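Why predict the complex rather than its parts? Because the way molecules touch one another can change local conformation, and only a joint prediction can capture that. The input here totals 549 residues.
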Amino acid sequence: MKPLNSVIAACPPSGIRRFFDIAASMDDVISLGVGEPDFVTPWRIREAGIFALENGFTTYTSNAGLLELREAICADLDSRYAVSYHPASECLITAGVSEGLDLALRVLLEPGDEVLIPEPCYVAYAPCVTFAGGTPVTVPTDGADGFRLHVDTVAAAVTPRTKAVLISSPANPTGAVQPREDLAALVELAVRHDLYLISDEIYERLSYLSPHTCLAALPGARERTVLLGGFSKAHAMTGWRVGYLCAPAAISELAGRIHQYTMLCASHVSQMAALEALRAGDSDVAEMVADYDRRRRLFVKGLCEIGLDCREPGGAFYAFPSIAGTGLTSQDFAEQLLASERVAVVPGDVFGPSGEGYIRCCYATALPLLEEALERMERFLRKVSA
Amino acid sequence: MREIIEILQADGRATPERIAKMTGLGVEEVRDQIAAWEDAGIIRRYKAVVDLDRLRAIDGTEVITALIDVSVSPERGFGFDNVAARISQFPEVRSVYLMSGAQDLRCVVTGRSMHDVADFVAQKLATIDRVNATVTHFVLKTYKDDGELLIPPTEDHRLRVAP
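Output of the joint prediction:
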């Protein structure tokens, strides 16, 4: 047989996968290893999906997605962040942010173009850049200052081949929210070096300590920014696979061209459900966010009390405590914790080298289980330090 | 402060310690606030939400619930209040509402059997002065009670570890 695609064959599988396989084979595991809400999609949204099925909305939609949904998304972005996109030419409905990211990278990158990615970051960023023919260049951030994005570190990584910066705030896995002034400085850097910005804002609704800063709304950003958003985290709709890409018409048009030939369109039923989420979902979002926030406070405090150093994460639903005090690597810590106390967390190094010495714990888990997990972790820490 | 009430409404057994952690408030502050609400009669009491259908399935305990519409002649100067207060005093009566629409009062009444409830209506409720008529609706099955879904919960379908 002739060899398969060497670029893809050379890309290692996600480090999360291995952990999943171990955890899936065990009983009585409390999992803090998930990356999604523990709420089921709010009923009014599920009901809208059922209505769509019952009434036969089972066809293709236009390639770009239902115009009504694009109008609702653009109106929502305008009202909350004062950033204006034209629904017909600058907004594309995608199968989640994942597809939007792939489209953005394929539209922006020529072979060999470099994309700067602050890490620790979502596991798909670097592989997607590689698959799009680009070269991922990770930029370290430091847990000691809450994984803040320092624009001079980013600037130091810029080369003549740098084409774009890919960022996410609030971030998976750290829960870090980048301050507005840091993002503004990043935009200035992008303007200075004529770089594109890809902003993954899937966690925008989950910002607990400060109002979310939409990157595209910052002065000078809109013309060079691809804004990626979706419904998965805010509306607990991960399995519906529906998100959006907003960008200036020239970019959106090309992204739409790939989408037209590959995805064709996002699921019709999911689009109908997403429309209901935008029309009537605000109160559900507010309730879920308030609930995450309570668990966030309780869990982070709990981590500190059992002796794990954890900075307050401002967004998403992850705590990213340091386990440096144990002397274990992230992998060893996570493996031993799972084996001896049956608590599944994700070792921080799978998200990039700066994540070594940390673990990702998702607190979108029922309160009694969080408390039980803290007890088990405390017992584990006592064993490790003994 | 409103958040404390919301947490307690969802879980009456949440301790001040836990609420303090969840809200970022001080333990003493939470304790004092709850005590103040209890003193002011805002928090009336803490009780369990029981799935009576399941309880019956296990030990045969029969609790019959009926919604009873009551038609009342209002009283000059008091409207429906005196009659409503009189009805509310009966321990069999769980809730009493003044309603818009065709009937005046709606009562939620519980008893050990349909006969118990029918007896209560015939002997006590219908005989009260100014009560003109009653219509009794027996509850056959409870799907959701005071915000609590009693049908089987949705399982957690999430993968154990995911990006």
